[in-house]
Design a protein that fits this description.
The protein is mainly alpha-helical and 199 residues long. Helices cover 40% and strands 9% of the residues. A three-stranded antiparallel beta sheet has the order 1-3-2. Strands 4-5 form a two-stranded antiparallel ribbon.
């Protein structure tokens, strides 16, 4: 019987993206968070929707990631983690703002061909689990704003520096022995009354 019409057992009739066993066993992939794996999967889907031809120009919005099941607050840390571990590159930064001016990030998956370029596989530069865990943990940390980061720390002594009192807080009885800290004491008031009675 001729096997001309038969399909090979390892063939796939639909679109797919291959992951090498070397990548799946790599320290970088072993420590990848669930959010990062979903981010990679959503970018892979975008790659397939573009016919497999636009790796490096793949636009995926935050809403796209959210619809795929990633919590909005987990998207940024997961993308940073993916870049740091070498699975994804942001080739063009997006811009936030009103709908008419908003643009998404554009991505390149490092383990897939980009146009005529071979995969670069930056993830393969990480050789140990400990190294990968440190990189991933650092990448997921919250990003501090530049203004807050560059602000000079204020010393404790600077917080309690002497300030010249205003007119409202000056001692009203300065130079007058009948006053103590700007108010009459009970003894002073009585002595003054007694003096007036003697007069």
């Amino acid at each position: 019987m001729s096997g001309g019409g038969k399909r090979k057992r390892n063939s796939i009739a639909e679109q797919f993206i291959a992951h090498t066993v070397r990548m799946l066993e790599s320290p970088a992939y072993q420590v990848a968070s669930l959010a990062l794996r979903r981010v990679l999967a959503r970018i892979e889907i975008e790659h397939a929707h573009h016919g497999g031809n636009d790796n490096g120009k793949l636009p995926v919005t935050y809403d796209d990631f959210v619809r795929y099941g990633i919590h909005r607050h987990a998207i940024g840390p997961a993308i940073r983690e993916g870049v740091a571990l070498g699975f994804v590159e942001i080739t063009q930064r997006g811009h936030a703002g009103n709908a008419e001016f908003r643009t998404p990030n554009k991505f390149r998956l490092t383990y897939i061909h980009a146009s005529r370029a071979l995969p670069t596989n930056e993830w393969d530069r990480i050789h140990t689990i400990e190294e990968a865990e440190g990189i991933a943990k650092q990448a997921r940390l919250p990003v501090k704003s530049t203004r807050r980061k560059n602000r000079k720390p204020v010393s404790v002594s600077a917080k309690f520096r002497y300030r010249k009192p205003s007119l409202k807080t000056k001692n009203p009885g300065a130079g007058n022995h009948h006053y103590s800290h700007g108010t009459e004491s009970g003894t002073t008031s009585i002595s003054r009354v007694g003096t007036r009675m003697q007069e």
